[in-house]
Structures are given as structure tokens and as C-alpha cells.
Design a protein that fits this description.
Blueprint (H helix, E strand, L loop, with lengths): L2 H27 L3 H11 L7 H13 L1 H8 L12 H16 L5 H15 L4 H16 L1 H7 L1
Helix pairs in contact: 1-2, 1-3, 1-5, 3-5, 4-5, 5-6, 5-7, 6-7, 7-8
Length: 149
């Protein structure tokens, strides 16, 4: 992998980390997204973050959270309200990427969500995230998933 590609990959990974934190903050506080984003940019060294991707993830996941929840509810084994806040933020971000970023292979979306859950979530939340998003990929990325099996 070239250094440029590695830097792009790392910048997107960092964007996801900041985005899931912002989504979580929004879920807990309902502060305006533009305030969350502005504070995050001031409080953190973000020179190695894909800022446009961070902005997209944060704003679009929050703006479309009801539609994303509607996608998630059929593949959950519990009520949405019973989910841990970090799990919900991670699932919403993963659902958004599965639905809107077809250029990102579904396995990459799952791997990134698993890493977010390992970093921010509870001990076994990554297993739950993997299972839910894998079931969602069966719906949203059926052809791609079938080809990879």
C-alpha cells in the first residue's frame, strides 16, 4: 500500500473516530451538530483527519438518524432504546456507510465499526456490532456479500 493511500485510510479512520464521538454527544445532549463540530475542531489536533468525511458523517448520520434507525430495527435483537449509547452511535455510522458509501467494501465498513466498538465500547460490544451490521449488509449489500462468500 502506498504512503498516500495509507495516509488517506488513516485520515478516514480518524474521521470515523471523531464522528462517532460527536454522534454520541448529540445522542446524549441534543446539542446542535454545528456546535459539536466546532468544539471538536477547536479542542483536538485534527490536521491528520479527513475533515470533509468527518463533517459528512457527523452531519448526515444525525440528520438521517430516523431513517438509519428504521434500517437497523429489523436486524436488532432488542429495542433501540436498550442499546448502549456508544453501540447506537457506532451502528448508525456503520449503517450510513453501508447505505451511502458503496465504494467502501462492506467488510471494510464492518471492520471499521468493530474497531470503533473495541476502542469506545464495552468488552464485547464489537461482537454485537459485527452481528448487527453483517445482517444489515445482507439487506443493503446483498449482491456484494454474496460475491464475497
Amino acid at each position: 500500500m502506498s504512503q498516500t493511500l495509507q495516509a488517506t485510510y488513516a485520515a478516514k479512520r480518524k474521521a470515523r473516530r471523531f464522528a462517532v464521538q460527536g454522534i454520541y454527544e448529540w445522542q446524549m445532549s441534543h446539542n446542535p451538530v454545528h456546535e459539536i463540530e466546532a468544539r471538536t475542531r477547536v479542542d483536538n489536533a485534527m490536521h491528520k483527519v479527513d475533515l470533509s468525511y468527518y463533517h459528512e458523517l457527523l452531519t448526515q448520520v444525525v440528520a438521517n438518524h430516523e431513517a438509519l434507525d428504521a434500517l437497523l430495527i429489523p436486524v436488532l435483537d432488542r429495542e433501540l432504546t436498550a442499546l448502549d449509547g456508544v453501540e447506537l452511535a457506532t451502528l448508525r455510522l456503520g449503517a450510513y456507510e453501508l447505505k451511502e458509501h458503496l465504494e467502501i467494501p462492506y467488510r471494510v465498513v464492518l471492520d471499521e465499526a468493530i474497531e470503533l466498538a473495541k476502542h469506545f465500547g464495552g468488552a464485547d460490544s464489537h461482537k454485537y456490532i459485527n452481528g448487527v451490521l453483517d445482517r444489515l449488509a445482507t439487506t443493503l449489500r446483498a449482491a456484494e456479500k454474496q460475491q464475497s462468500n
